[in-house]
Structures are given as C-alpha cells and as structure tokens.
From TrEMBL:
Residues 114-403 form the DNA methylase adenine-specific domain. Its EC number is 2.1.1.72. It comes from Komagataeibacter medellinensis. It catalyses: a 2'-deoxyadenosine in DNA + S-adenosyl-L-methionine = an N(6)-methyl-2'-deoxyadenosine in DNA + S-adenosyl-L-homocysteine + H(+). This is site-specific DNA-methyltransferase (adenine-specific). Transmembrane segments: none annotated. Pfam families: HsdM_N, N6_Mtase. Belongs to the N(4)/N(6)-methyltransferase family. GO terms for molecular function: methyltransferase activity. PANTHER family: SLR6095 PROTEIN, TYPE I RESTRICTION ENZYME MJAVIII METHYLASE SUBUNIT. GO terms for biological process: methylation. Residues 6-37 form the N6 adenine-specific DNA methyltransferase N-terminal domain.
C-alpha cells in the first residue's frame, strides 16, 4: 500500500512554482480527484487525460466543471482556480496530473477507513509543514474528550456529533474511528471559518463515505449554519484568543435577544471569543426531554477565572453553575499543544446529569500524567499515553475522589504512577500521594465582591475598599463580623456589591508548603539583626 510520503514526493516538482504553504492544497485536491475517479462504478482515467492533453489546464477545468457541486465548491475553496493556471504556466501541471494518475487509491486497495487515515496523515503533514497548529488538536486530547463525552454510550448507540470550529476535521475523524471500534456510530457535522481548512474537511468527509454538505463554511459565531439542528454530542477545540471585534454587532444583537439568541449569559472581552463558542455549544445542546447532550471543549485558563465579578466571563460561568451544566473540568499537562504552551483545560458539560452528580462538579488535575514526546513539534513537548487517558476517564467518572501515587522520575515526569481511591492516608514508602480528582459543589465557585465605604479622609473624599468573600457567607453578616467592630463608621455599599464566579484548581489541589523549622527561622533572624546592627553602626560614624 502507498504511504503519505510517497504521495508527498510531488512537492519536489512544486518547488519554486507555488509557495510551500500551498503545497498542501495542490496535493490534497489531486488526491481527492484521483480517489473520486477510481471510486466510480466504472472507473475513468480523467487525470491521465489531463497529463496527456495539449492544454492540461483546459482539460482540468473541464474535469472540475463536470464534478458534483459540493466537490466543485471544495476545489474553489482549495483555490485550484488560482493554482492550476500557475502550474500550467510553469509547465508542471501535466507532470502533477501524471503523478497522481499513477497512484492506486482504489477502494479495493483502500477501504473507506484506510483512505480516511491516509488523507489524515497527509493533512497532518500539511499542518505541520506550516508550523501553525491552528487547526490541530493533539490526538490524545481528542481521545480523552471522545471517551468522556461518549462515556454513557454502549455499543449499538448512534448520535449526531458536531464541531463548531472543525478545522481540517482531524478531531471529528479521529473520534469517529475511535467510536467505531466501540460499536458506537456517529453522523458528523461541523462549521469552519477558514475556506481552505473547510474544503479539506469536506474532502475528508467525502473520502469517509459521509456527506460533505454536513461541513459548512463560515464564521460560526457570526452565523450558525446548522441553526435548525440540536446535537446530542459535541467536541470543540476553538482557537485561543480569537477576537470578535469585526462581528461585534451580530454578537451584541444575539445577546440583546436574550433566550432567543445564543449569547444571553454574557459577553466576554472582545479580545477572546472562547466563551462565545462555549455559549454557542450550550445553545446547540439537545434538550433534556429528548435525552440531553454532552459537550467536550478545550479552553485556556482565563475561561476558568478571568475577569472580575461584574465581567461577562464571570456571568457566563455563573450561568453554567446556576443551571448545573458543568460535569467535569480537567487540567491538562502543559506543553501539550503545537501552537501554545499555556495551561489548558477540558470542560465536559452535561444538561442531563445523573442524580448522584447533580449540583456537583468533578475537578481532575491531570497535569502530572504525561511523558516526554519522542520528538518535539512547535510548543508540544509532552504527550499523554492511552494509560494516562484511561486514568483520567476513571477519575472523571468514578463515584469517589481519587489520588495519584507517584514515584518521581527524571525531568519532572513520573517514573511510576498509579491511581487509587482517596482515603486520606499518609504514605511512608517514599512515594507521594497527590490529589487527582475532587468533587466540589458548583455553588462553591461563587463569591461576593463587596464594596465597603469608610469615613472621609483629610481631603473630604470617602475611601472605598473591595473585599472578595466566600459565596457561602452572608454579606451583611460578614460585614458585621469582620469590619464593623473595627471601624464603626464604615458602611457596606450593597449597590456596588455583586456576586461573581471563578473556578480555581489551586484551591483544591494546591499543596501547602511545609513550615520551616524553628531553628532555621531563628538563625535567619539573628543573621538579619546582625546585618542591621552593622549598618546602623556604619551609618553613625
């Protein structure tokens, strides 16, 4: 069987003809054309005819014009109408067509799944060569989200699976393959803002024997092209830090529409639309009366605690807590993504949680479950194995809290580890027990931001102080206990006080440092006093 590098060798003929960033469009488009002509009931030799033609460009244009409309749309979004003339002018279009005409991509040699994997390998090479990672989700992160989102589903189950920022389709395709091995079938849907990435995803769907029309082009936040559909299962890794300034009027209009729009809970900072995608997914969830929905989404850390109590981000988080929509939050290891080394998190949302999990959120600290990548790619230096994934799934779905027993190894990675039920015991065998999962009441993420006004200072202006108080505290009772006895003139300004929502892993997983020994503190104190005395003596001379 062919390998992706064998197909990719044509890049040598493209050198100096098209920019390296366009190699992928040429190779992927011709791969699709070759597969289509061999997959017909009566295979044709259209690309061979292009290679032999006196005018390869005219022959190729005729070939594309006879394709079904969805495939013609793919070729347009891959910019073949611009690239083909360039290849023709350089005199290499016939050679490119001949290269692909000689490849056996027939269904007899490559079944649907084999062809999909070959195409995915080509896409990954294309993404990696551009070194952007813009549409790339690490395979292990996709596997983890898939296992968690489909955790309730047994063999024989079928669902519609949707990705609102589908990119080249790697996340959907890998999920479909993983689920098929479990006997769970999915119908794939998505939308993508990049025309080229959308075309590649549509081509992947076509080669998988699926409907490419289920993948729609366009900005999901500006216009939902699957507006009539709701989904039982969704996966998403939307771009981090994507600003929405250019579509602000459309976003604000939907926010003003309240429940009739997608963004009723709140508007985040214009510099980052991550939490707009989160709200979009909420709006796409199948209603509980019809069986409910589960969502897996990757975000950066700001989605958990960014913004003050009055911010749109806080309002969105509070909406999630108030409606008991967060099932699990997972802190991933750092350096997992090609295009960023920042802390990342997986949200698992569920609008139909079982009785035992209602009102609760499972937090999982998976930052210690990783190994070094054999080969770094961009910012990606760490990876999770299938054993790591299984441990996180167990910690996420178990009915009890769990710890991680770790034997430290080189470079920060664990030399050995295993997950155990949390029982509060202290280990004496040289290993250390780290908290892996904790169940927390959703309401514990709420806090009060209280404004206290004190008496006027010398210039006559009152002094205002803001205090962050646990959400379980009654504001007036807190004020009467913590402020009033020490400043009878102070006043709690309820008009400026509000309730916020933030999720802090450090609150539940941060290990307090051991107190220093008393003799060490005394030694430092004596040393500092001696230095101070010496400075005083020196200054007095």
């Amino acid at each position: 069987m062919l390998s992706a590098p064998a197909i990719w060798r044509i890049a040598e003929r493209l050198r100096g003809v098209v920019p390296p960033g366009e190699y992928g469009s040429v190779i992927l488009a011709f791969t699709v054309l070759r597969r289509l002509e061999l997959a017909r009931g009566r295979p044709v030799a259209a690309l061979a005819a292009v290679a032999r033609a006196t005018s390869p460009q005219a022959r190729l244009e005729t070939l594309i014009a006879r394709l079904p409309a969805p495939v013609r749309g793919m070729m347009t979004r891959m910019e073949m109408d611009l690239i083909a003339p360039r290849l023709a002018r350089a005199g290499v279009l016939g050679d490119v067509a001949a290269h692909f005409a000689a490849l056996d991509l027939s269904p007899a040699l490559y079944g649907t799944q084999d062809m999909a994997r070959l195409f995915e390998e080509l896409v990954h090479h294309f993404d990696s060569s551009e070194d952007t990672g813009a549409h790339y989700t690490p395979p292990e992160v996709g596997d983890l989200m898939t296992d968690l989102v489909f955790a309730p589903d047994d063999a024989g189950t079928g669902h519609a699976l949707y990705d609102p920022a589908v990119g080249t389709g790697a996340l959907l395709g890998r999920a479909a393959d993983r689920l098929a091995a479990r006997g769970v079938m999915v119908d794939l849907f998505g939308q993508e803002i990049s025309p080229r990435a959308c075309a590649i995803c549509q081509a992947d769907m076509l080669l998988r024997g699926r409907n490419p029309a289920h993948i729609q082009p366009g900005n999901t936040l500006a216009a939902d092209h699957h507006s009539r559909r709701r989904f039982a299962r969704m996966l998403a890794n939307p771009p981090f830090g994507q600003e929405w300034r250019g579509i602000r009027p459309a976003i604000q209009a939907e926010h003003a529409a309240g429940a009739a729009g997608r963004f009723a809970a709140g508007l985040p900072r214009v510099a980052d639309g991550s939490m707009l995608f989160l709200q979009h997914l909420l709006a796409k969830m199948r209603k509980p009366v019809h069986g409910g929905a589960r969502v897996g989404m990757v975000t950066h850390g700001a989605a958990l605690g960014g913004g003050g109590a009055e911010s749109g981000e806080s309002a969105i988080r509070r909406h999630l807590v108030d409606h008991d929509l967060i099932d699990t939050l997972i802190a991933l290891p750092p350096d997992m993504f090609v295009n960023t080394g920042i802390a990342t998190y997986v949200w698992i949302l569920d609008n139909c949680k079982p009785a035992g999990r209602q009102g609760m959120v499972r937090l999982v600290d998976a930052t210690g479950l990783w190994q070094r990548c054999p080969r770094s790619s961009g910012e990606k230096r760490r990876e999770m194995t299938q054993a790591h994934i299984a441990a996180v799934v167990q910690a996420s779905t178990a009915g009890h809290d769990m710890d991680l027993i770790v034997q430290p190894g080189a470079e920060g990675a664990a030399a050995d580890w295993h997950a155990v039920t949390h029982d509060g015991s202290v280990r004496m065998d040289g290993t250390c027990a780290l908290p892996l999962s904790r169940s927390v009441k959703g309401e514990d993420f709420l806090y009060h931001s209280l404004s206290v006004e004190r008496a006027a200072n010398c210039d006559g202006a009152p002094t205002r102080l803001t205090f962050t108080v646990d959400g379980a505290d009654d504001p007036q009772a807190w004020f009467a206990r913590m402020i009033q006895p020490f400043d009878p003139t102070a006043r709690l300004d309820r008009t400026r006080s509000t309730t916020g929502c933030a999720i802090s892993f450090a609150r539940y997983f941060g290990a307090p440092s051991a107190p220093r020994a008393l003799h060490a503190i005394e030694a430092d104190l004596h040393h500092s006093m001696a230095r101070l005395a010496a400075l005083v003596e020196k200054g007095g001379r």
